[in-house]
Amino acid sequence: MEKVTERAREAEPTLDPYDASLRFKIEMSRRRKEGKVLLKAQDTPWRQNRHGFGKTYSNSTNWPELAVPGWSISRPNYQHEQYKRGKHTHRGGGRLLFCLEGKGRTINNGINLDWEAGDLELLPVTRTENSHQHFNMEMGKPCGQLVLMFWPFMEATANETRQVTDAPAWKGEKKEELYRPDDFVPDQALLEGYPIQFSGPPTNLLDDILLRRNKWREYMSKARWIIKEKDQPLETNRNGIYRWYIHPSFQDVAMKQILFWTHEIPPASRSGKQKLQGGRVHFVLSGRGYTVINGKRYDWGPEDVILSPIIAGGVVMQHFNADPLKPAKLACAEPNWFDIIGVDMACGFEILEDCPEWKALQKNK
Questions:
Q1: Which residues, at least 6 apart from 274, have a Cβ–Cβ distance to it below 8 Å?
Q2: Among residues 136, 309, 345, 350, which one has the fewest Cβ atoms lying within 10 Å of its Cβ?
Q3: How does DSSP classify residue 212?
Q4: Which whole-number Å values give the CA distances from 21 to 34, 69, 118, 136, 316, in the listed order?
Q5: What CA–CA distance (Å, rounded) separates 93 from 255?
């Protein structure tokens, strides 16, 4: 009988960890460079889900397709027959809610937060949870919000969302694993150490951090959770007409990790031209126009979303109002990296051209 010699099976080649890291970074750069910049409202369907009725422009399901991954962008709407949304809870917090129309109320951890068109609601990071429900306070009239979350900040705070009760219009299956368990807030979250107070400057660097903690807790006890449009003045700057809601210099707002402002562009006018790293979100509140990013034009209309890509060398960006009679208005948000990475980021922050309104203001001085 002929003896058959089996050949040892060759081991599958393994990718060197360093090479794997290089490939991952190259792939992420490609995704951001080739990702979607313009998210059209007409291509974003209204849907009913267990929490309410609305649109989702961006979340974990489409991040790989976008020029700016990590943002959760949605647009809930409260019709008269759907005057309230479901109730859910966020462990970690960190959400912005900009009121687009109507008047509403959020009951968060038993506290009433009332808002109306043009106001910004903050659900900041808390030690336990933000358990809340949103209501339309004007029956028979529409009410809606723009909701923004940035996942890298949320992940750092062990963020998790669980449903508490469903929206009245939801008729789908209740999946128990999606709902708040009794131990949603772990016991260690409630642990507190002994009180530490300082009568003078800290004598070591750990005490310096504890002093900062004490100051932050005092700050948060007085900070605003609702930023009223009427309390925020307009400013004309090199890039346009802004109304700031969250700015790095503000010392009275309950969330500072995301910057937020509105940007008005007069009829047939334009913004300044900026160079920046990217990562900014623009939601078109009203008007029609276009944005030029690194020489490419993106035409937009009401409730479209424009993303400024995060790419090597940054982006050169300018907005144009295409309507000769009506102003355009954008809601803008970006992570507040300024105190962490620096304003220049990895490309430099530059004004390349001033907007016409700033030029006129300087000329008339």
A1: 239, 316, 317, 318, 349, 350, 351, 352
A2: 350
A3: H
A4: 20, 19, 44, 49, 29
A5: 10
C-alpha 38/C-alpha 167 separation (Å) is 30
For 239, other C-beta atoms within 10 Å of its C-beta total: 20
Q: Which of 311, 310, 314, 288 lies closest to 300 in space, CA to CA? A: 288
Convert the pLDDT of each residue in 122-170 to its tens digit.
999 998 999 999 999 988 888 999 999 999 999 999 999 999 999 988 9
Bridge partners of residue 211, in order along the sequence: none
Q: Enumerate residues 6+ apart whose C-beta is below 8 A from 215.
A: none
All domains of the chain in start order, with CATH: 39-171 (2.60.120.10), 234-363 (2.60.120.10)
DSSP string covering 14-65 = PPPHHHHHHHHHHHHHHHHHHSB-EE-GGGS--EE-SS-EEEEEESTTTGGG
Given a contact cutoff of 8 angstroms between Cβ atoms, the answer to whether 144 and 76 are in contact is yes
What share of the chain has pLDDT > 90, as a percent? Answer: 88
3-class SS shares of the chain: helix, strand, coil, % to 5: 20, 40, 45
Report CA Rg, the chain.
24
- pTM as predicted: 0.93
Would you tell me how many other CB atoms lie within 10 Å of the CB of residue 287? 19
160: which strand partners?
A: 91
Rounded to 5°, angle at Cα 49 from 44 and 52 = 90
Eight-class DSSP state of 151: H
151, amino acid identity: W
pLDDT block averages, 10 residues each, the chain of length 365: 58 83 94 96 95 95 96 86 82 93 94 96 93 90 94 94 93 94 92 93 96 95 97 98 97 96 98 96 98 98 97 96 98 95 95 97 87
